[in-house]
Amino acid sequence: MRPIEGITVTVDLEEMKILGFKDRSTVPVPKADGTDYRESSQNHHLGLRWKGISMHQSDGPSFTIDGHKIRWANWDFHLSFDARAGPVISLASIFDLQKQKFRKVLYQVPLEPLRDCPENAVFMDAYVADHNGTPVNMPNIFCIFERYAGDVMWRHTEAAIPGKVIREVRPEVTLVVRMVSTVGNYDYVNDWEFKQSGSIKVTFHCIKARFGSNIGYTGENLHILVGLTGLLEVRGSMYTHKDQIKEEAYGTLLAENTLGANHDHFFTYHLDLDVDGDANSFVRSQLLMTPVTDHRSPRRSYWRVVSETAKTESDARIKLGVAQEDLLVINPNKRTNIGNFIGYRLIPGSVAAPLLSDDDYAQIRGAFTKYNIWITPYNKSEKWAGGLYVDQSRGDDTLARWSLRNREIENKDIVLWYTLGFHHVPYQEDFPVMTTLSSGFELRPANFFESNPVLKVRPPEPDNWSNCSRA
Amino acid sequence: MRPIEGITVTVDLEEMKILGFKDRSTVPVPKADGTDYRESSQNHHLGLRWKGISMHQSDGPSFTIDGHKIRWANWDFHLSFDARAGPVISLASIFDLQKQKFRKVLYQVPLEPLRDCPENAVFMDAYVADHNGTPVNMPNIFCIFERYAGDVMWRHTEAAIPGKVIREVRPEVTLVVRMVSTVGNYDYVNDWEFKQSGSIKVTFHCIKARFGSNIGYTGENLHILVGLTGLLEVRGSMYTHKDQIKEEAYGTLLAENTLGANHDHFFTYHLDLDVDGDANSFVRSQLLMTPVTDHRSPRRSYWRVVSETAKTESDARIKLGVAQEDLLVINPNKRTNIGNFIGYRLIPGSVAAPLLSDDDYAQIRGAFTKYNIWITPYNKSEKWAGGLYVDQSRGDDTLARWSLRNREIENKDIVLWYTLGFHHVPYQEDFPVMTTLSSGFELRPANFFESNPVLKVRPPEPDNWSNCSRA
């Protein structure tokens, strides 16, 4: 938390030796006051003495883990680890009670790098190769737990017949697959939450540890753009008060001599959906205001849904926030009993568009941020939205470049690339450690089932601990 | 769930007598199959036998309720009930450890009409007047509980000194104030979640019970627009398969003879923020792409923050999703030690713009949906965004009309009106009962504290039940 500003060090990574350094400028080193976040260093605490709180399951969890295969409620999927992408969820299927079979939802989804889980969590290890190729065990890289946060899955009260109130409530219990990663000075928590309703909810929690030099890290599905790299990132500074700042400071004064740089976070998800089979199409259902002119009704307008199937890649490049629309991946070969195409819907989270010019190198490499949605036909060499090698690349191997081929994407094995993001203007509360900022998205069944699939879910029993005595 | 279509009944509400009825059209009554959502009516269940799961606090909750005054962790506020607005949260203040005093955040927030809470919840009653003016007790209208959903408030891992890993994690425990209301055929769950970090997170869970005739309900902070009322809402129909639909059906075929109408949900929050005092200003911090032309840097662009204080009401009418910006309510008379203005930030949720024409009566009454954000100077007669009386009104007493006066709003006691919404295209999973769809927003401190206020929060202890035996 006390950056020494303006020093560039040249290191030989083969020899692990410092070859030299350059001291470009001299500014005061920020004071140590208030920068230590450890509990052991806090000399007094907030008044409240916390009472205990826990999630409890006296009979253990309701899910099973067999190797990398996880089964819970109506879900069945495979969980593995990739050194670059983090958790990879594959072959996710959901059991359809009516059809009495498992139906495929997605083929593969790589995500981001655990711990920090409740008492009822089960942990899993993973392996990576070190720089010499030796396998390294990464213990507890994932945790899997059932979550009951006091929420409601569905409910209804009906007082239609006098004296006879119908009240039906089903609490929401979900399965969370979590990974925590530390990338540069950030801690990321990525949750994949499976719901019995068929929804998959992805939540990305972004926790800044401190403002340091996370310059130019460009993993493919974790792409941090730090504006005007090397000048912009948060740094030591001459300033001790906002009034001294007369020119662009590229950020916020967070403490004396400490500037927090304006920066962005973009997260790209490679969603290889297989909705009830491999061959899928992408459908934009635009909601359009429609005037009523015939005066048969006192109303002057209504809105209608105009659905269009994307034929080629250019039809499916979407900047979110412009049109009001539902975005669906459907199986054009399968319909429900009453004739609707079987599908899943993407409900987007926080939308951010890039704020860099197209010819800026950071943006050339990060060109996949230009649209929030891209659809490509599945191609095994097209795995990393920012290219296989990102550092010092010229953007030749990015999603934006592949998409220029404008391939056919209708009724094919398609990949939905979804980028969520936020621009981060620092505030003093982010210093020295930022509290969690979350965003995410939901994949929700849309005419995938004949009707609400959770009507037949038994309400889970509360864990009965009434005869317990405190340990 | 089995609408008899096309009948209009005229009722004398004084005499409580039916005066007459009109049968406009005859269509088949939908079959009863699959419409009963009660657990007792399900002849078989989904395979999984749930194991118990609970939230536990063996020493009871950490909050106190004194009449209507609630204290928890660093928060202090008043909770009351309004028959129209639902829960009203007032005089919310947060304890600042550094300054050793409570600081005001908001004066008053009316919201929406509980039960459906976890085991550790505490309930509160409220009273309303019936149509004769007699006080009626509404038991358990609110529940208040601490939530631990297995999430992380903040964490950091640091391996800077070899062999000495620093890992600090604080689990996220929050206080939830919940109300559940049944309006027409919808069940709404509204959560106000207080975080120790100073954030207030509001989540609106929308649970459709069934598609019926919720026509034209227009409460002020719950405004349901049903497109082309009377024709459009979900209804019995001749159709039994999608392929029979040749003209506009204003919705989705959900089951044989049952159409689910396209419709909207708009929720308006009246946020009378008092950030560290009454006199506040509204600031838009726009993030703007800025070209770099001097070739001193290999970079071609960066983004900067241009902050503008809204002088009058017209400066603060905002359609979200157009500009990339941070929206702040600041106290222009108070600054942090290093000179930043003290403020709170609104982080919006699901954004929807109206899809009706300006001259359509539903939109004239619901004109407050035209902008997602409005700021007005506090005026005690301006309480209901849709007007004091909404039914059959002509839009003379709505937020959109008051705002035309273009009053001064800088350094005043101001009200932030925030409208979130979503357009709902029905899918078969919504039949006969829809699973919860949620949206919300967050009020987050922005240079309100000198630094992260939760560094000094002790980690709560897990509830230790290890010596317990199952009851």
| Residues in helices of chain A, as a percent range | under 10%
Overall morphology of chain A? globular
CATH topology of chain A: Beta-galactosidase, Chain A, domain 5
* Average pLDDT taken over every residue of chain A: 80
Q: For this entry, what is the oligomeric state of its chains?
A: homodimer
Number of strands of chain A: 25
Q: How would you characterize this protein structure?
A:
Chain A has a single domain, classed as Beta-galactosidase, Chain A, domain 5 (Distorted Sandwich). The first copy, chain A, is globular and about 75 Å long. Mean pLDDT of chain A is 80; it is low at 110-115, 209-233 and 465-471. Chain A has 471 residues and is mainly beta. Chain A has helices at 361-365, 399-403, and strands at 7-12, 17-23, 54-56, 64-66, 69-72, 75-82, 86-96, 101-110, 122-129, 135-161, 164-183, 186-194, 200-208, 223-225, 235-236, 251-255, 258-261, 263-273, 281-291, 301-309, 325-335, 341-347, 373-377, 414-424, 437-446. A 10-stranded antiparallel sheet of chain A has the order 9-10-11-12-13-25-22-21-19-20, with no helix packed on it. In chain A, strands 4, 5, 6, 7, 8, 14, 18, 23 and 24 form a 9-stranded antiparallel sheet that branches. A 3-stranded antiparallel sheet of chain A has the order 15-17-16, with no helix packed on it. The interface between A and B is large, with 163 and 164 residues. Chains A, B: GO terms for molecular function: copper ion binding; primary methylamine oxidase activity; quinone binding. Chains A, B: Its cofactor is Cu cation. Chains A, B: Its EC number is 1.4.3.-. Chains A, B: It comes from Populus deltoides (Eastern poplar).
